[in-house]
Amino acid sequence: MVAGTWWGPRGKAGAPPYLVSLESDIAKELDVKLGDEIMWDVSGAEVRTRIANLRDVQWDRFQTNFFVVFQSGALESAPHMLVTLVRADSASERGRLQRLIAERFPNVTAIDLSQVQAALDAMVRKASLIVRFLALFSLATGAIVLERVREAVLLKTLGATRGQVLRILIAEYVALGVLAALASVALATAAGWALARWVFEAPFAVPAIPLGGLTLLLIAITLAVGLWNSAEILKRTPLAVLREE
Fold first, then answer.
1. Three-state secondary-structure class, residue 200
2. 223 in any annotated domain
3. How far apart are CA 238 and CA 153, in angstroms?
């Protein structure tokens, strides 16, 4: 709780306005503060409330959290449902509990949150794998840039000017952009044809103008990024690099 006071265990609602507790971020979005009144439309039933306190909620914790908490009894006249959490340590216990609930309380829905947690864990593992891949890719890129610096220094030592080195870099990055663009266009065209042929069962036509524009855009992006990364190569002098060696 970051502001206001809680209404306590005996704070059962009397006459409106009823007390509510708001999550601090949603209070900022609604532009409301302590003491402000809010009229809620709960499935057609109007509930007049007054903000009693504000809370910070840790949404990353795997537990029940709400943007708004109403004072006990405030929603008695409005359509509502009840939610509770029950912990079961094993899959067999969870299955038995779900069967018992379905048999004794047919109108109660039991949701196994362990499956949701497993899906979230799988997503986190995949994200961490991507991060590790990007880290390795960054290291490989750094090694390539270092090698390019040495190549540029060698060319300058042999008498190449900065303009000649720049033209060599432009030619290389344009060629790389063309190869990347052709590969992308080929894969996109093949995927589009496969979807049209096997999924949508519709005729397929190659969008030549958009693909041509995409090709030019990819070449331009490759050239721009390559030259931006190669700025250090053009600035370094042979003597400075040789001293570092």
1. coil
2. yes
3. 5
